[in-house]
Amino acid sequence: MESPDQEDDDFLFADEDDEDDKVTTETQPTWKVMIVDDEPAIHEVTHLAIGKIIFQNKGLNFVDAYSGEEAKRLILEHPDTALVLLDVVMETDDAGLQVARYIREGAKNHFVRIVLRTGQPGQAPETEIILNYDINDYKEKTELTKQKLLTTVISCLRSYNDMMIIEQNRRQLIENERILKFAKRSAESANQAKTSFLSKMSHELLTPLNAIIGYSDILQEEAIIAGLDAFIPDIQKISEAGQRLSRLYTCILNISKIESDKLQISPEVFNICELINEVVLTTQPQIRQNHNQFQWQCVDLGVMQSDRNMLYQILSSLLNNAGKFTQHGTVKLIGERISREENKEWLIIKVIDTGVGLTTEEINSIFQPFNQLDNSTTRIYDGAGLGLAIAENYCGVLGGCISVESKKGEGSTFTLTIPINILDEL
């Protein structure tokens, strides 16, 4: 060990002029620096050399330990220590090495930077120490001038600060992941509860709605027979309102099933043109209600294997949407069957209208649930904004997609692309 005389102290910081760079009287907030050495003079000279350093607006706060055992106790009391300047030879020849090992393995502190300082390098060869101990630097006391000590300290503080930023970000990511998992579980639970509620309410809601629709039809027939023509428009409004509520409930139930991933596919083989004829038959009244012309071109498209009900809903939504947003215009349906890569066949159906058209922003949100083209309180287009959302989800389930081309004021073209054989996609 070195003796704590003035000659050793002068030698430790020899050949360096005192500098005032990076010094200030500010001490808060601070970086904790632990000095572990059994010579009080080493503590004093270290305080003098680096005591006024300011790094990133934080000064140094020294924790002094005069033995290896005291250092072990203090590192537990100060786990936020940024740097340990550690002497090797103290109460034993390897006391400092044992402290270094304890910090990493016993105290589980992998962030504090450890710099070994030894006055007897032969007692602890540098190569052996670097290989066998988790330290960050190894310095002989004879080479630690004041400037080099300043450089070592700043380098270690910068490294410690970077590690703490990384650790803080890691913990924040873990916390964010925990929050997201909790939110996901809560959302899934809410969706399941919503789907369960809607399913259980099917009887309670649809039974009275069907009764309203049925009795209104009966009343309408009796009014016609009795010649009570004045009552017929009101009775028709009752029937239309009931049918609208029934369709809305069905849409909400379907959206709920989509969100809870409970959609079930029922593949079957069917004639494509026959299905299109059925869709056209049911949607033409809505299209012509707005004084539109309806055209459709459908050569013999053959048969396909897919979920017939889902495809029916997709086509109905596209045609109803076109008829709703077109007035005194034209709605056209074009169907074709094509072959693509790997000899797979696809059904391509285009629904073209000359309606109000869409902006780029509207195209980007058109398939969002409850999206309304006109959200004003005086909007002229009815509907809950669920039809296209359901259609796109159904299309995705069937292995296809829906694309949109549109220009504001000039109409829109919705293109449905769906595999002829869904089994090729499953």
How does this structure look, described?
With 426 residues, the protein is α/β, with parallel strands linked by helices. The chain has 3 domains: 6-170, 3-Layer(aba) Sandwich (Rossmann fold); 201-259; 267-424, 2-Layer Sandwich (Heat Shock Protein 90). It has 12 helices and 12 strands. The protein has helices at residues 6-12, 40-50, 68-77, 95-106, 126-132, 146-200, 202-226, 232-259, 272-289, 308-324, 360-365, 387-397; strands at residues 30-36, 59-65, 83-87, 113-118, 137-140, 267-271, 293-298, 303-307, 330-339, 345-353, 401-407, 411-419. The strands form 3 sheets. A 5-stranded parallel sheet has the order 2-1-3-4-5, sandwiched between helices. The protein has a 5-stranded mixed sheet with strand order 7-9-10-12-11, covered by helices on one side. A hairpin with a 3-residue loop joins β11 (401-407) and β12 (411-419). α3 (68-77) runs parallel beside α4 (95-106), α6 crosses α8 and α7 runs antiparallel to α8 (232-259). It is elongated. 27% of the residues are buried. Mean pLDDT is 82; it is low at 1-27 and 376-380.
- The tally of domains stands at 3
Structural class comes to: alpha/beta
Largest sheet: 5 strands, parallel
The top level CATH class name of the largest domain: Alpha Beta
The CATH architecture designation of the largest domain is 3-Layer(aba) Sandwich
Mean pLDDT comes to 82
Strand content: 15-25%
Keywords:
disordered N terminus; Heat Shock Protein 90; alpha/beta; 3 domains; 5-stranded parallel sheet; elongated; Rossmann fold; 12 helices; 426 residues
